[in-house]
Each structure stands twice: as C-alpha cells, then as structure tokens.
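Q: Hi! First time asking for a complex rather than a single chain. Here are the components, and I think there are four in total. Is that enough to go on?
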Amino acid sequence: MSIQMNQSLSVDCAVFGFNGRTLKVLLIERRYYTSDTPLDKLKLPGAMILENETLPEAASRVLEEATGLRKVYLKQMEIFSDPQRVSGEELQWINRHHGIRTERVVTVGYYALVKLDAPTIAYTTAKGAQWVDVESIPRLAMDHKQILASALAMLCREMLQSPVAFELLPRKFTIRELQTLYSAVLGIEIDNRNFRKKILASGFLTPTAEKEQGVAHKPAQYYTFNRSAYKRALKEKLRLGFINNWRY
Amino acid sequence: MSIQMNQSLSVDCAVFGFNGRTLKVLLIERRYYTSDTPLDKLKLPGAMILENETLPEAASRVLEEATGLRKVYLKQMEIFSDPQRVSGEELQWINRHHGIRTERVVTVGYYALVKLDAPTIAYTTAKGAQWVDVESIPRLAMDHKQILASALAMLCREMLQSPVAFELLPRKFTIRELQTLYSAVLGIEIDNRNFRKKILASGFLTPTAEKEQGVAHKPAQYYTFNRSAYKRALKEKLRLGFINNWRY
DNA sequence: ACAAAAGTGTTCCTCTTACACCCATGA
DNA sequence: TCATGGGTGTAAGAGGAACACTTTTGT
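A: Yes, that's all I need. Here is the structure of the assembled complex.
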C-alpha cells in the first residue's frame, strides 16, 4: 500500500438546540438534490476544508452558513476515516458537485450548541433546514447517523462535566428550564429540590430582576449564567487533593 | 479560497511508559537525519495514512513499528490542522523523503500507553529511540511538543475517569506502584491509607499468590487488574440517579 | 375556587479526608 | 538492630439522596 493522496478532509456538524421540551438537531437537505437521486436527502451540515483554513475555522464557517450565527459553541469529537465511508455513488456525487477528483473523504465530527431563538429558527427554516427531535431521526446521508450518535453520546458526557447546558438556553432562563434540559438530554428524572440546591450552591447562577410574565402559575425567577464565577471556581478546583470520584 | 487538495493526513503518537518512578515518553530520531539538517532531530513516532487504512489502523501500525507491540492502548485526541503547521523546510523534507508532493499535512494526535518491560525497552533502544522523562522534553520537530502537551493533559483527565493506569503497569503490580503512578502522572501527593481503601473497595484488584521478593523491607502483595469486575461495575453504574458530581 | 408550576427543609447515609503507628524483611 | 517501605483504623465533616407541602399567579 502507498501513501494516500487525492483525499479530502471535511467537517460535519451535529448542531443541537433545545426548544424547552426536547433536544433537537439541525438537518439540512442535500444541495442539488432531485427526487431521482438514489441517495438519502437529509444530512448534517458539513463542508470540505478550504486552503488556508483550520478545521475549527471550517466548522465555524459551516455553522455560520447553516444558522447565521457566529461564536457558536463548537467541540471537536471523533474522526471518521473508514476508507469506504464515502464511496460509489456518494463519492461521484461529491466529485461532480464540487468539481474535484477525490478518492477518499475523511471527516471530522463536530458538535455545536445553539440557542434556539426565533431569528435562528427563521433563518434555518428559510434555508429549508429542519430541527428534528433527536428521538426520531430519519435515514441520513453517508454515515451521518453514526456521527450524530457519537455527538449525542459526547454531549451527555460533557453535560455532566462542564456547564455546557447554558449554551442551549437563552441568556435568561428559569431553573426549571435548566432542569428540564438536563432531564431531556440525559434521559433521567431529577428531583427539583436537590437540583435547585446544587445549582444554586454552585454560585454560577445570578438572579436577574425579572420574573416570568403571563403564566398561569407562580412566576419563576430568571437567572443568568455567571461565567466569571465559573472560571474562578475552575482555577481553585484544580487542586484535587485526592483522586476525585472516578466514574468508571 | 478553494477546496484543499494535495493534502496529506498523518498520525502522530505520544507513547507513554512508566518505569516505576516517572512517566516517560518515546521519542524517535527523524529518519534520514544528518547533522546539517536544519531541523530538530527528535520527534514523536508518526506516519502518513496509507490507502485503504483507517486512522486507528495507521496509529496501530506506527505503534507496532516503534515498539514491536500489538494491541496497545490507543486513544485519539485532537487534530492539528493549522495550514502552516508543516511548511517551508519541513514540508520539503517530507516531500523529499516520502516521494510525494503534498502542500499541507494535517495530523491526528494519538496517545498510547505501554507496559515498559525489558523486551520493549530493548526493541526501542535497538531502533535508536529514547524513553524521555516527561519533565525534561527537549525541542521536538514541527509542533510535536504541542501535541505531546495535549496528550499529557488528556492522559491526566483519563486517569481520573477510567482505569487506564493499568495499561502502564505490568500484569502483576503492587498497590504502591499503582499509587506512585497516579502521583507521578497527576503531580499530586496521595495518602496511602486512603488510596488503598478506595482502590481495594472498588473490587477491581485481585490479589495473587505472589509477593515481592528480595526487597529489604516487608514484601508487598502483588495484584492483577480484574477487568471483568470493572466491566460489570460499568454496566450497573450507568444509572446515574442524579447529576453526578460535576467537575467544572 | 381551582389548576399549575414555583419554591422551600430535613434527615439519613455514604464517601472523603486527615492523621500515626506497628510489621516483615534484608543488610 | 536498624533501615526501609508495607500495611492497617478511626473520627469528623461534606455532600448526595429521598421525601411533601405551601405559595403565587391566571382563569
């Protein structure tokens, strides 16, 4: 065997959003798709890497194109490098539509967390993209379903270890929203008293002057995430005196 | 900008070993190196990806060539994709010695954990490679020092979360050896009473019939890692009732 | 008045931490 | 007999888990 040349590198992004009830992922329609294309229509947003661009830059570019958002939370995960992961018709389709001649496409998976607000939904809808519940994902192009599964697994792990949840919530949110998000992503029930105690004790939430309005029940307090308190805690906690609770 | 073609994908491996005192990393000499080469001599083991080979396969191949070992613990970490990470003289050197014409090399970092036994040391020494203390790493080729730093950081995180330590120890080891390993990698002091309690309570260690011999003190019990007990615990622990101790 | 979600405290128990001495062996 | 590292127990404190009722609002 010889060194692989004529290969391409791409990024594919699993973009997650939270609508207050369930976790959603952004799926786009394959460009140039016609009904007689014998390939699956829906896919994750992705792109080939350009000259003079790093992988994170490529992922940001994809994200901005797909959602209109800059400065999105982005995290690299696995690389998918099976020599056959894009082959046959899929490979022809890529070469035809990109005007290149590649023999192999290795892709780097990213996952992104966005705040699902009205402008973002409008933007994506206008582009023909869909926010699909992660519980009911249809067939996807190439190995995108596998990439998505990997992203979901990684998101669960991240949620337990760092405060990425706030990337999925609006700037102001209620504690119940935060709790619902954890429940939805992790698929577990959470006791609200314990949750409030823990999250408030952390000192990472700052209460705002606002409360919910127009709800048919006691209105909830809005909080914001106090990122600087979090960063301060990070520094201090770097002393881990003993081997902290390993998680198997 | 246009789609990047004429690029290569490589893997670079930070191979860690433990000699009972300190953590070591395997550095090799650049092939075809002559003293007038204006490039750094030492580097991490690595290789270009071959046709028909996945990245993990490439990493295994590199590992076997560097250490003579198959079935080594291997973990993918970051991708290093700065367009300029290999350029100028380095890029020329690569093209000359591989007989290719690449314009850009993106590399995937792996870290590997090996048991530093006599045959392995003999093998690597015969190949002119060196096991260097991670505290005193010299200049390395390209961005390999950065790759190594990233590997070390990742290793620390992994050590706290899963029982990878055993990959660095011989099949039979004493609890003190295990403790020394944790201390060395994490750079912390560990109380031996608490450590023994915790590690023995986990049920992952099986005592063997053997004890240390020929030491000028009370001989220590040898243990082996009970992987099946660990896997059993894994399954049961997947219920995480509440949001387990997040670590910031 | 009622429906609906917000918000609040206590008890039990486990796990973490800090800490000091005797034991078995080879020299 | 001494030097060396192996091996042991306990008490105090922190944090996790289980549990039910009152409050505030809109209709």
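A: The mean pLDDT of chain A is 91. Let me know if you'd like any chain examined more closely.
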